[in-house]
């Protein structure tokens, strides 16, 4: 590692590389690379969702090993890790999107407000209204902007007439910071927007249903830096009303938007902690390797 | 390390690369040109054989509606049995009073189609007041005369080698000279059913038969095929059973059509006792044949809908059915329609299975429903192609032209529908 290595926190000047070095010198020895037990504090008080001993298998292959992790209220939790480590898999378990894959199997418990979402009597349709999802590639429906946002409320019966629909469309687009840009062309296809606008449209579509949790799987990976910054600001605003779990491959992004960070490695949850702690003072050797750019 | 740099090596290889590209282009152009030549040859040969069928030779008769010969013409039944052939013969012999002997009269009458008396009868049915009056009527000439006028019979040939003898040739020349013989547009071809006489045969019976057959096929195979495809693609768990079903559907699409005909014969006719030669049964057989095509095309169309759209729908809490019907189906529909139309076009041109269920019978009446005995366009072509009369040769080509027109129209429709409904995502 060269000493001139650029800070990985360009927007937080107080956390320059030198500071970090001093800090590391003082701390206890790191957990060995071979140890795959989760270190840090995976649970929070009064969680929105909590996952207990979750294992996920694709056929015979195990993609997630015994993960226990809570998602708190009004927080943004970032999930980071090298690609293929199971971040998306884990995220998709939280609203049972993996049900669509025939050979995907899950053991363990995932509680939403105290109720196991994998119980036999749980219906995935209302579950997905409660736990919404934003995908990596912006995927608006090939319909008008208005229809995109109105679709969720319509199928869930949240709106009875045109006026109510108009209102929910407007508030959702406002919350997603897109209203000013599209209010004059609500009837144009959603696919005619730019990539960043499309992604905000997808966020508006998700929040129109009024979820409690929003899952985001690398929502900015297909966007340019300016669009990314807008979405990051938006995530920060949305935290007031929602719990957000975001998968990202960008450590800067994780440090900018999240309060807690979970580091995954080859299907194991290696470390969980407050974002500052994980980036500045990781407890596990693998986490340190990753956040210092030595790996991944 | 050698002296030559990488770019020199690249440049040296360039010529070879461009030559390969050029060669490939030439292959492609050759392939397209040869298929175009074959196609042009096909169209030209059909067209040049068939275009004459759209015209037909008519002879003008001066008909005296003599109540004494006709007998009772007071109501429909009696008109139907009235003696119109004598009226026609009488007007002919008035034109050629010099023909007196029995055998000559027979030769003279042979110039006029045996259907001429029906033309005359139709005039009476339409206008009963004409009884006792004299009118000029254009009636179809016999097919031999028609062939002569169209140049398919050589006037210079030895008398024994042509179907019209010298006396008949003389009468025909007389008719031509007096302006009593003319080629006119052949309406009969588009409005009549089949006939033993080429000049009276038309394709409307076959077109109607094909139409009813296609209706049955479309109404059954499209909904069933699309429903099966949606279920298999979107709802069924992927396991051994769906694999077996998939393999079987693919096999069915490759089964020769005659086998479906035999199946139809055994099941629909012999077991269920459905009527023979009926478009209903033809449609059922065609449905069996078209279903696998539609299922395969529809599944491909469903597969090509990007998974991101499904995820988006599921992500906002759409149920499986809502996802399919609100989002996937609208995107897959153009592909499904294309598959269905192509399957239907194949069914329209299919002959073999219809032979097995009796739609090959000689049927003069035009079918008016799904259970009336009828034939179909390709079978009509087969029947005419098999007939010995020279007059059916041009009819065969003309019928092929009609069939090709339908096929081209259907394929064009498929393209238009796809263009119209195709959405970008
Ligand atoms: N649909 C699938 N079928 C089989 N294996 C999968 C599937 N999706 C993901 N995997 C496997 O699960 C592991 C985790 O993948 P994923 O969750 O997509 O990783 P990440 O999002 O962290 O890059 C990978 O090894 C991947 O190959
Ligand atoms: Mg991923």
Walkthrough of the structure:
The complex is a heterodimer of chains A (296) and B (425). With 296 residues, chain A is an alpha/beta fold. Chain A has a single domain, classed as P-loop containing nucleotide triphosphate hydrolases (Rossmann fold). In chain A, 34% of the residues lie in helices and 22% in strands. Chain A is built from 11 helices and 11 strands. In chain A, strands 1-11-10-4-9-8-7 form a 7-stranded mixed β-sheet, sandwiched between helices. In chain A, strands 3-2-5-6 form a 4-stranded antiparallel β-sheet, with helices on one face. The two termini of chain A are 15 Å apart. Chain B is mainly alpha-helical and 425 residues long. Chain B folds into 3 domains: 2-51; 54-191, no CATH class; 204-421, MetI-like (MetI-like fold, Orthogonal Bundle). Chain B is 65% helix and 5% strand. Chain B has 18 helices and 3 strands. Chain B has helices at residues 6-50, 67-70, 76-80, 84-95, 102-109, 116-126, 143-149, 166-177, 188-191, 204-235, 240-254, 257-271, 279-303, 307-315, 320-348, 352-356, 377-385, 391-421; strands at 55-64, 134-140, 181-185. In chain B, helix 17 (377-385) packs antiparallel against helix 18. At the A-B interface, helix 3, strand 7, helix 4 and helix 7 of A face helix 14 and helix 15 of B. Magnesium ion binds at residues 87-88, 217 of chain A. The site of magnesium ion has 3 residues of chain A, from helix 2.
The CATH topology of the largest domain in chain B: MetI-like fold
How much is the radius of gyration of chain A in Å?
20 Å
Instruction: Give me the number of helical elements of chain A.
Output: 11
* Shape assignment of chain B: elongated
Given helix and strand content, the structural type of chain A is: alpha/beta
Strand content of chain B: 5-15%
Mean pLDDT of chain B: 90
Separation of termini of chain B? 52 Å
The name CATH uses for the topology of chain A is Rossmann fold
Bound compounds, each kind once, are:
adenosine-5'-diphosphate, magnesium ion
- Overall geometry of chain A: globular
Q: Sheet bearing the most strands of chain A, described?
A: 7 strands, mixed
- What is the CATH domain class of the largest domain in chain B? Mainly Alpha
**What's the helix-strand series of chain B?**
HEHHHHHEHHEHHHHHHHHHH
Q: Return residue spans of chain B where pLDDT drops below 50 for at least 5 consecutive residues.
A: none
Q: Percentage of helical residues of chain A?
A: 25-40%
Number of domains of chain A: 1
The helix/strand class of chain B is mainly alpha
**Helical content of chain B, roughly?**
55-70%
Helix count from the secondary structure assignment of chain B: 18
């Amino acid at each position: 590692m060269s000493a001139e290595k650029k800070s990985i926190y360009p927007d937080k000047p107080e956390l320059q590389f030198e500071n970090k070095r001093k800090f590391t010198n003082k701390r206890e020895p790191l957990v060995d690379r071979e140890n795959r037990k989760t270190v840090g504090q995976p649970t929070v008080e009064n969680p929105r969702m909590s996952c207990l001993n979750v294992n996920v298998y694709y056929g015979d292959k195990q993609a997630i090993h015994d993960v226990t992790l809570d998602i708190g209220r009004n927080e943004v939790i970032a999930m980071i890790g090298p690609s293929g480590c199971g971040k998306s898999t884990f995220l998709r378990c939280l609203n049972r999107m993996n049900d669509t894959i025939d050979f995907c199997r899950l053991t363990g418990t995932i509680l939403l407000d105290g109720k196991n979402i994998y119980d036999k009597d749980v219906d995935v349709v209302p579950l997905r209204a409660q736990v919404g999802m934003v995908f990596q590639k912006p995927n608006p429906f090939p319909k008008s902007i208005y229809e995109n946002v109105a679709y969720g409320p319509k199928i869930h019966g949240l709106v009875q007439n045109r006026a109510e629909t108009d209102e929910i469309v407007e508030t959702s687009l406002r919350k997603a910071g897109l209203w000013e840009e599209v209010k004059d062309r609500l009837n144009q296809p959603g696919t005619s927007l730019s990539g960043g606008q499309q992604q905000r449209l997808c966020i508006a579509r998700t929040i129109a249903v009024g979820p409690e949790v929003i899952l985001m799987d690398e929502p900015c990976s297909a966007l340019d830096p300016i669009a990314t910054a807008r979405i990051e600001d938006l995530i920060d605003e949305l935290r007031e009303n929602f719990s957000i779990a975001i998968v990202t491959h960008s450590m800067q992004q994780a440090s900018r938007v999240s309060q807690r960070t979970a580091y995954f490695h080859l299907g194991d949850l290696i470390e969980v902690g407050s974002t500052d702690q994980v980036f500045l003072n990781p407890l596990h050797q693998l986490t340190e390797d990753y956040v210092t750019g030595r790996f991944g | 390390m050698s002296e030559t740099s990488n770019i020199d090596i690249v440049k040296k290889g360039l010529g070879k690369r461009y030559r390969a590209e050029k060669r490939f282009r030439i292959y492609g152009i050759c392939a397209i040109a040869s298929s175009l030549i074959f196609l042009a040859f096909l169209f030209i040969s059909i067209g040049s054989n068939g275009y004459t069928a759209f015209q037909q030779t008519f002879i003008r008769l001066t008909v005296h509606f003599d109540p004494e010969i006709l007998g009772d013409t007071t109501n429909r039944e009696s008109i139907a049995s009235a003696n119109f052939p004598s009226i026609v013969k009488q007007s002919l012999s008035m034109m050629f009073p010099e023909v007196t002997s029995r055998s000559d009269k027979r030769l003279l009458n042979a110039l006029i189609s045996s259907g001429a008396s029906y033309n005359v009868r139709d005039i009476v049915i339409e206008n009963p007041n004409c009884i006792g009056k004299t009118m000029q009527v254009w009636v179809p000439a016999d097919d031999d005369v028609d062939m002569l006028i169209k140049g398919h019979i050589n006037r210079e040939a030895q008398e024994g080698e042509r179907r019209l003898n010298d006396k008949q040739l003389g009468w025909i020349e007389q008719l031509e000279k007096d302006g009593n013989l003319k080629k006119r547009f052949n309406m009969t071809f588009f409005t009549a059913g089949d006939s033993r006489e080429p000049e009276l045969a038309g394709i409307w019976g076959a077109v109607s038969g094909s139409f009813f057959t296609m209706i049955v096929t479309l109404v059954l195979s499209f909904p069933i095929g699309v429903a099966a495809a949606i279920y298999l693609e979107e709802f069924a768990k992927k396991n051994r059973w769906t694999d077996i079903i998939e393999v079987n559907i693919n096999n069915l699409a490759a089964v020769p059509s005659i086998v479906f005909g035999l199946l139809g014969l055994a099941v629909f006719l012999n077991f269920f006792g459905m009527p023979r030669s009926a478009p209903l049964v033809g449609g059922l057989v065609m449905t069996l044949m078209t279903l696998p095509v539609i299922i395969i095309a529809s599944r491909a169309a469903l597969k090509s809908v990007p998974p991101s759209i499904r995820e988006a729908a599921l992500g906002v809490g759409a149920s499986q059915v809502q996802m399919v019907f609100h989002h996937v189906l609208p995107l897959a529909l153009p592909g499904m329609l294309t598959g269905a139309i192509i399957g239907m076009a194949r069914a329209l041109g299919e002959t073999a299975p219809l032979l097995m269920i009796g739609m090959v019978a000689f049927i003069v009446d035009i079918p008016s429903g799904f259970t009336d005995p009828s034939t179909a366009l390709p079978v009509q072509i087969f029947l005419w192609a098999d007939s010995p009369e020279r007059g059916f040769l041009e009819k065969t080509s003309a019928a092929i032209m009609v069939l090709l027109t339908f096929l081209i129209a259907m394929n064009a429709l498929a393209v238009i529908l796809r263009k119209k409904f195709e959405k970008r995502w």
